[in-house]
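User: My instructor asked us to take a sequence, write out its structure as tokens, and then describe one feature of it. I'm not sure where to start. Here is the sequence I was given:
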Amino acid sequence: MKKSARILVSLMSLLVFMTCLPCVAAADKQMDPPPMAEGTAYLDMQNGIEINLHETAGTSSSLIKQWNCAIGENSNRKVSISGETITYEAVDYLDVEVFLQCWNGSDWVNVTSRIYKNRDSFYVSGSDFITVSKGYSYRCKAIHTARTAGSNDHIKTSVSNAIMIQ
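Assistant: Let's start with the prediction itself. The structure tokens for your sequence are:
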């Protein structure tokens, strides 16, 4: 009886080892997040952040004139995330929802989000400081929404470059 129990424990240990080994190897191959796809990145030296700025040229069928988000590294494992939305004229409703995302080795995963709203305005912005874990890449993603009475939502998305927290 003891011999069959030892064999069973050995087989279970081998099964666990064989199952976990490919995950560790796959994580090593997929550590770097992909580069930013759209927008123009500006480095704000005064505040130590990189801003991903988008802007529609001239008059547009969109209500949104300019939209951006940014992420910056502060001390003590804190990052700042921010977002901003500007419309051509005052609108009934305006918001920016800002997401902190973490790279898990194969995809960007939402960690947390903040939403900033305004009414009867052409401008909304907001920012916050969030504590993060060392050894991971983080980025900021923002969804910008503008609405006037009788129209559909006008929605734009911005994404920052990633930063690695050491």
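For the description part of your assignment, you could build on this observation: The two ends are 52 Å apart (CA to CA). Try explaining in your own words what that tells you about the chain.
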